[in-house]
Amino acid sequence: MKKYKYNYLLVGGGLFNAIFAYKATQNNKKCLVVEKRSHLGGNVYCQTIEGINVHKYGAHIFHTKDKFVWEFMQTLCQFNHYINSPLAKYQDKIYNLPFNMNTFYQLWGVKTPKEAMHKIESQQIEINNPSNLEEQALSLVGYDIYEKLIKGYTEKQWGTEASKLPAFIINRIPLRFTFNNNYFEDPYQGIPIGGYTPIIEKCFAHSDILLNTNFTEDRSLKDLAKTTIYTGMIDEYYSYKYGALEYRSLKFEERVLDTENFQGNAVVNYTEQNVPHTRILEHKHFEFGTQPKTVISIEYPCKWDKKSEPYYPINTQHNNLLYAKYKELATKEDNIYFAGRLGTYQYNDMDKTVHDALKLYETLNQ
Ligand code: FAD
Q1: 248, 221, 360, 227: which is closest to 305 by C-alpha?
Q2: Which residues, in sequence order, are CB contacts of 38 under 8 Å at separation 6+?
Q3: What pTM did the predictor assign?
Q4: Consecutive H or E run containing 142
Q5: Is residue 6 a contact partner of residue 225, using CB atoms and an 8 Å limit?
Q6: Which of 4, 15, 65, 239 is deepest in the core (most CB within 10 A)?
Q7: Which atom from ligand 1 is nearest to the alpha carbon of 352?
């Protein structure tokens, strides 16, 4: 019987494989991590700049309904009490998000839930079977909210006019009739004190690591381990033989500013069409920082190509069918498991990523 140096080859050093490696190495299994970037952590990676933990690949707020995942995470880090309360800027006005009584007051001066409901009802446009996102939004929330807070942001996000986007993208638009700016409805929420990088370092502490190493350029690495957990893009693994799955990408323009407080909030969305960016993040506010300087990231959505970062899968029918074909190939493989957001071609929040990694480890070690 062939003797392997490692129990697991972990392709990708993101959150999924970090959690998997943590469990595996706790149980004396040997792991080799292969990561094409120059650092571990995948998209949750934080870099410390001016004493501030900068979320290099976009704002990451941990939130979950899953008590088991929350309790598991407490064994890895301590969370602060950050509550995500983004703002929206449209022209010269600021609005609270998610849409709640504060937003309705800012839009129309209404002060009671009853007044707000009447106002929204008077704005909603009756459209039977909305055929695109614009019609869907107008039928759900009416003109003012759509025009000021949804249209421009969504069009920038997807790079397409709202009237050409499918209606299913916004199946429902939650409207909250309380003065509550907490974006998430989950009972558990926070930011790890010190950022996400220490969690990743803790998880991979007992694994061997190869950075700047692209698995697709050296597939013989697979021979080093009995089992491979692959969290790269599934279509890339199969050399795009059925075609490439599509993504939306992002670019971040990072600036260190010689000011203590730039925008007074971690996240401000820019909902106007003629402002090219969708968001500005001011990282210190994720951890209530008091450093003398501040770091901001200006976020621009952009087209994806094979040279750019794949951020959001575009789950159109065409792409989902394509993914199903790759998945079919994957099920025929021995000793390789496709996992994480790129391996399964889906957007997963961190809690789902942690849950799935724990589950896969358990399944493979029953
Ligand atoms: P990744 O983090 O993408 O890790 C995969 C790793 O594999 C990467 O490091 C990549 O470089 C590497 N890799 C790929 N191919 C190869 C290869 N061929 N060889 C070697 N290495 C390879 N979740 C939340 O819960 N809250 C949030 O606020 C939140 N915000 C987000 C904001 C953005 C912009 C995005 C895109 C996601 C956000 N998420 C959020 C989701 C969160 O980022 C994911 O749940 C998590 O990062 C998924 O981890 P992963 O390991 O599956 O993937």
Answers
A1: 248
A2: 211, 212
A3: 0.97
A4: none
A5: yes
A6: 15
A7: 45
84 Cβ contact partners less than 8 Å away, ≥ 6 residues apart: 61, 63, 182, 183, 184, 189, 266, 267
The pLDDT, as a whole number, for residue 263 is 98
Relative to the CA of 45, which ligand 1 atom is closest? 2
Residue 256's SS3 state is strand
Structure tokens at 218: 């050296």
Closest Cα to residue 262, out of 89, 15, 17, 117? 89
* CA 250 – CA 301 distance, rounded (Å): 4
Only one residue has tokens 């930011």, namely: 191
Compute, in angstroms, the gap from residue 44 CA to the centroid of ligand 1.
7
Q: Work out the burial of residue 263: count CB atoms within 10 Å of its CB; fewer than 13 is exposed, 13-18 middle, 19 or more buried.
A: middle
Write out the H or E segment, with its range, that includes residue 87: strand 87-90
**Is the CB of 301 inside a 6 Å radius of any atom of ligand 1?**
no
Contact 133, 169 (CB under 8 A): yes
Residue type, 96: N
For the stretch 281-317, pLDDT in tens is 999 999 999 999 999 999 999 999 999 999 999 988 8
Amino acid at 323: Y
Mutate which of 350, 354, 358, 361 for ligand 1 pocket (most atoms within 8 A of beta carbon):
350
**Are 245 and 232 a contacting pair, CB within 8 Å?**
no
